[in-house]
Write a structure and sequence with these properties.
The complex is a heterodimer. Chain A has helices at 2-34, 50-67, 82-89, 104-110, 144-153, 168-180, 194-199, 210-218, 266-280, 283-292, 301-322, and strands spanning 42-46, 71-75, 97-102, 121-130, 133-137, 159-162, 185-188, 205-208, 222-227, 254-261, 295-299. Chain A is α/β, with parallel strands linked by helices. By secondary structure, chain B is mostly helical. The chains are: A alpha/beta, B mainly alpha. The interface between A and B is large, with 57 and 53 residues.
Chain lengths: 327, 508
């Protein structure tokens, strides 16, 4: 009896393994039909240093976890993003080359550095936003109102520090001071020097990332006056928005997200989008956003595409107005 | 004191110790191999620190930085190819000493003075961080411009034979620097519509090309032309370390170079290479004994001590703008800044209040890293000098591979490999017509700063050049520049006169 039972068990086991084998076979067929992705290492091109790079590296790690393949962040900096965008355009559209992109796709195009524009890329997902903040030295101007009054009275006198002509902080400053209704002088200085230049009084105001100013604001040496986004930012919720202060037109944020070359198959984009969504919702990414000081702002491929197109129009108009666009 | 004890608790952990050992070792190796740089080592390390405890992660990065800063001198001295830009000033005397057979003395000295320089500057920084950061803020665009211009006047010291030849090379460096994106106006310069060219000429890539390629060509050239020559006398390679008495002689010079390195490191936007070049020229110019002075450039120990002390003293100074203002001085400190941010340590005045224990543990990590690097290197020298026993043409093949891989890896760009080869040919050509190559590096190091600070200063003053004489610091540097140039011109005039006299005597 026991022997028969054992035989039955064996048969059941055999049938079981047969079924398993067939289903495995079927699975390999089905995955073959959809082409396994990623087939090889996914390379994520990073266009800038600083926070852009730090966050990009985190996102690459997060994608790796959720994608089931290796994702390597590779820096290709230079030309305000142009070098990296161009690299992506030179690669096959297989989804194995993605870029950690930003508004720079529009700025570098209108500056004449790239012949192609945002339409040469397939959006995957928006991940983060960073919001510039307007800051001054403590004791000089106490509010945006005071600053606006000064600018109106003394056109061209206020020295505003920017990272370089045509940089994102320049565009943001132009929007802010346009709204305040006065002319100012722009001083381009090296990256990251804004706090030191403000403290020393060599410049009067600067529009930069809040992370650069936060510590000085807390210590009472610099004063953050307003952020340029429509809503307050979680990391500095005590700073009012420009819109709250009555400058309704000011709505500038720097978004960062993922994109691939135009023509990348839908399935690949979907897989990447899914992995990005999973990481955007992870507690790990949330913790990082608090520490580094960016806002998580996930958008799916479709919405991201709309946002890029909308921003592109805005940037084009602004750069033409400032005389920065290359004709 | 309380903070210090908390910090000791944070750092008294085997993980931190292992991190420091790994970092130091990786830094030394990456710094020592021409083509690999410690910035690269830092970039590779950074992702690993994400998941570590803050103090462990930052210790790893700092140890890599310090290991690299000292490691750069190894290849500069042994094979005449600087491992990092900061070691470029060490090449002429370090390599000459090595050729004389004193490689181990030169290396040992470099290691010891690096450690001394680093530790003194660290202590200066701990004691005077407030004072130094206030001093650093005073350096606006006009002041930095004058400082860098002063740095450029040291070209006189680097041009061994003729000032004119030095200037030709220096100007070439300045011109090469203008290729790429102009960061102030954001326009393209000399890119010929090529997107890759927007990246410009990278300092490291140019340096690798200028020093390594001519070396490789020279080695093969002499081998092919002179088949059965005995390439190297193995017995010449000694493994002796410098004596205490020898170092004592240079103690004053060391102290001065520490001061120089710390203050230059503290000024935002300047870094190791500028400090090293200024220290080298200072050492040469302050030498009273004419016979000794003649030896500079031909293998004088002072020419190793000065730049090596100064470039390590920069590490302490550089922590000031990094921690108190969030301004990185060079690509390496920029990566460390990234590491700090990821662990929620935001630079600025509040860092010293809110995260005081972490700040103190950063100090302790630097201290520990210097000790580890020192021990590693002292034991390392005996073995590393044996590399000179390898036949030069075998070594050259290895270097060739490293420089190609290395120049690509800096920015993942093949443009850089091409630039490296072109720079290499320029370097070889320059060697042939006896133009010095070090001023090209100087031009590339200083060029970007000199141009940007000048333009920023001019836009601050709305086009009024009087801003360059608007502060005591500016005027002081201006006087130093005038003094340097005047002394050089006087020396050249006297030299020419002496030669004429000599000729007349000979003819008579």
């Amino acid at each position: 009896m026991a022997l028969i039972k054992g035989g039955k068990m064996k048969i059941v086991k055999k049938i079981g393994s047969l079924i398993a084998g067939i289903s495995l076979f079927a699975m390999t067929i089905s995955t073959h039909a959809f082409a396994k992705f990623p087939e090889k290492t996914v390379e994520m091109t990073i266009l800038f240093g600083g926070t852009a790079k730090s966050v990009g590296q985190l996102v690459a790690k997060g994608l790796e976890k959720n994608l089931g393949g290796t994702v390597v962040p590779v820096s290709r900096t230079g030309g305000g993003g142009a070098v990296g965008y161009k690299y992506i355009q030179s690669r096959p559209a297989s989804g194995h080359d993605i870029v950690w992109n930003s508004n720079s796709v529009s700025t570098s195009h209108y500056k004449g550095k790239t012949k192609f524009n945002y339409k040469a890329f397939e959006p995957i997902s928006a991940m983060t936003t960073e919001v510039p903040v307007l800051a001054v030295k403590s004791g000089t101007f106490n509010s945006v109102k005071e600053l606006a009054a000064y600018v109106k009275k003394n056109p061209g006198k206020l020295k505003v520090g920017i990272s370089g002509k045509g940089s994102f902080t320049h565009l943001t400053s132009a929007i802010v001071f346009d709204a305040l209704g006065g002319k100012v002088t722009y001083i381009p200085y090296g990256k990251g020097k804004a706090p030191a230049e403000l403290l020393a009084g060599r410049i009067d105001a600067a529009v930069q990332w809040p992370g650069q100013f936060r510590s000085f604001h807390k210590a009472g040496q610099l004063k953050m006056l307003a952020v340029t986004s429509p809503n307050r930012i979680p990391s500095d919720s005590n700073i009012p928005t420009m819109q709250e202060l009555g400058y309704k037109k000011v709505d500038v944020v720097m978004w960062r997200g993922l994109a691939a070359k135009k023509g990348t198959p839908k399935a690949q984009i979907k897989a990447l989008e899914k992995a990005a969504a999973a990481y955007a919702n992870s507690s790990e990414f949330k913790a990082a956003s608090k520490k580094i000081g960016f806002t998580i702002n996930y958008l799916n491929a479709k919405d991201f595409g709309k946002k890029i197109a909308k921003d592109d129009k805005k940037i084009k108009k602004l750069m033409n107005k400032l005389g920065l666009a290359k004709k | 004191m309380e903070n210090l004890i908390t910090a000791l608790g944070l750092i008294n952990n085997y993980e931190v110790f292992i991190a420091i050992c790994i970092g130091s070792f990786a830094g030394i190796i990456f710094g020592a191999i021409p083509g690999l740089t410690y910035s690269m080592a830092l970039a590779l390390m950074l992702p690993f620190t994400f998941t570590m405890q803050p103090v462990t992660g930052i210790s790893l990065l700092l140890a890599t930085y310090i290991g690299g800063m000292t490691g750069g001198s190894i290849s500069a001295i042994l094979i005449g190819i600087p491992g990092t830009p900061s070691a470029a000033a060490t090449v002429s005397d370090g390599y000459s000493l090595s050729k004389k057979g004193d490689a181990s003395i030169a290396l040992g000295t470099a290691v010891i003075v690096s450690t001394i320089g680093g530790l003194i500057s660290l202590s200066l920084m701990i004691v005077m961080v407030d004072f130094i950061s206030k001093f650093a803020i005073k350096f606006g665009p006009a002041e930095i411009f004058m400082l860098v211009l002063f740095g450029f006047s040291t070209i006189c010291g680097l041009a061994e034979k003729s000032l004119f030849r030095g200037l030709v090379a220096g100007l070439l460096g300045l011109m090469l620097m203008t290729i790429g994106t102009d960061e102030i106006e954001g326009v393209q310069r000399f890119t010929f519509g090529n997107v890759q060219m927007l990246q410009g000429v990278n300092l490291l890539v140019a340096m690798i090309g200028l020093f390594a390629v001519p070396h490789i060509l020279e080695v093969f050239n002499s081998r092919i032309c002179d088949e059965d020559q005995k390439n190297y006398d193995i017995d010449v390679v000694k493994t002796k370390l410098p004596s205490f008495a020898l170092l004592k002689k240079y103690f004053n010079l060391m102290l001065r170079c520490v001061g120089l390195g710390t203050s230059i490191g503290a000024i935002p936007g300047s870094g190791g290479p500028i400090a090293a070049f200024l220290a080298y020229s200072h050492a040469k110019n302050s030498e009273k004994d004419l016979k000794e002075k003649e030896l500079y450039g031909k293998g004088h120990l002072g020419g190793v001590i000065a730049p090596e002390t100064a470039n390590n003293a920069v590490t302490g100074g550089a922590m000031v703008p990094l921690l108190s203002l969030g301004i990185p001085g060079d690509p390496a400190t920029a990566i460390i800044l990234g590491g700090l941010l990821i662990h929620g340590l935001v630079p600025g005045p509040m860092l010293f209040i809110e995260n005081a224990p972490q700040v103190y543990s950063i100090y302790l990590a630097i201290l520990l890293a210097y000790i580890v690097v020192f021990l590693f290197q002292v034991n390392f020298i005996k073995h590393i000098v044996k590399i000179l026993r390898v036949k030069p043409h075998h070594l050259a093949v290895g270097i060739l591979i490293m420089v190609v891989v290395g120049s690509y890896a800096i920015r993942n760009s093949f443009l850089d490999v091409n630039v490296m080869i072109i720079m290499g040919l320029i370097g070889y050509f320059f060697n042939r017509i006896r133009l010095p190559v070090t001023p090209i590096v100087l031009g590339l190091v200083l060029g970007r700063t000199i141009e940007q600070e000048y333009r920023t200063a001019m836009s601050l003053s709305a086009g009024d050049p009087s801003i360059f004489f608007g502060s005591i610091v500016c005027v002081l540097f201006f006087m130093l520049i005038i003094l340097t140039i005047a002394l050089q011109v006087r020396k050249r005039v006297i030299d020419v006169r002496n030669q004429k006299k000599l000729k007349e005597v000979n003819q008579a």
